């Protein structure tokens, strides 16, 4: 048992002080506060001219990641907003159709 005195406060440690020098993990909230999985931040998955067929557009572009990674819903929402602003500015509101394909499991 090690006894440390610091500013008239008495600490009692059950091991050497090197065991308590660094805080390694963040505190985890109690399970009663974690009721379920939060809703995804991205709400709109289709933007632009949704009623047009696929053959009516001259170009089809896919953005694919070849690496395994966790993509947060905030990142998907930011990418959708940026792409929507760019396409609306340069192509017009009715000249494109953007579909965000969400993964089966997403990091929230």
From TrEMBL:
SUPFAM superfamilies: Ribosomal protein L16p/L10e. The keyword Ribosomal protein applies. It comes from the Eukaryota. One of its GO terms (biological process) is translation. Keywords: Ribonucleoprotein, Ribosomal protein. InterPro entries: Ribosomal_uL16 (IPR047873), Ribosomal_uL16_dom (IPR016180), Ribosomal_uL16_euk_arch (IPR001197), Ribosomal_uL16_sf (IPR036920). GO terms for molecular function: structural constituent of ribosome. Belongs to the universal ribosomal protein uL16 family. This is 60S ribosomal L10-like. It comes from Olea europaea subsp. europaea. The lineage of its organism: Eukaryota, Viridiplantae, Streptophyta, Embryophyta, Tracheophyta.
